Amino acid sequence: MVRILKSVHGGIIKHAESGFPHEVCGVLIGADGMITHYRECRNLNTERAHDRYDLDPVSFKEADEWARGNGLEIVGIYHSHPDHPSIASETDRQRAWPEWVYMIFSINGGKYNDARAWVLEDFDSGFIEDAVELVEG
Ligand SMILES: [Zn+2]
């Protein structure tokens, strides 16, 4: 179960819609199994920005430092799928780490469709869908 504050979920939707038709990406931050913050990161992939993302390591490091400074940690990554379902691709799986949750926001024609969360049991396993629970706040 992935628990995420409604305000965080809504903020990521705005980020994903505003970035359409390109993929946007960022980090999920929280503690104790709850996602309480997010940070937008630059997508360094400009050649295939419609279906690839390369999360900027500089903005990742800044987000990591901010999280640690606030007693939190990075718990996962989000990115958008412009005009594609919120299903993790093979590329997404190959880049994923088992400790993190991967949330994918599907944006159709610039409007939010849905969001799903994916986790790995280990490096060799396929993605497993995890339920998303929106928490007031
Ligand atoms: Zn993807």
Task: Walk me through the structure.
By secondary structure, the protein is of the alpha/beta class. Helix content is 24%, strand content 39%. The radius of gyration is 14 Å and the shape is globular. The chain has a single domain (2-116), classed as Cytidine Deaminase, domain 2 (3-Layer(aba) Sandwich). A hairpin with a 2-residue loop joins strand 2 and strand 3 (34-41). The protein has an eight-stranded mixed sheet. It is built from three helices and eight strands, in the order βαββαβαββββ. It has helices spanning 6-19, 57-69, 90-95, and strands at residues 2-5, 25-31, 34-41, 73-82, 101-108, 111-119, 128-130, 132-135. The structure holds zinc ion. Residues 79, 81, 89, 92, 104 line the site of zinc ion. Zinc ion (ZN) binds next to strand 4.
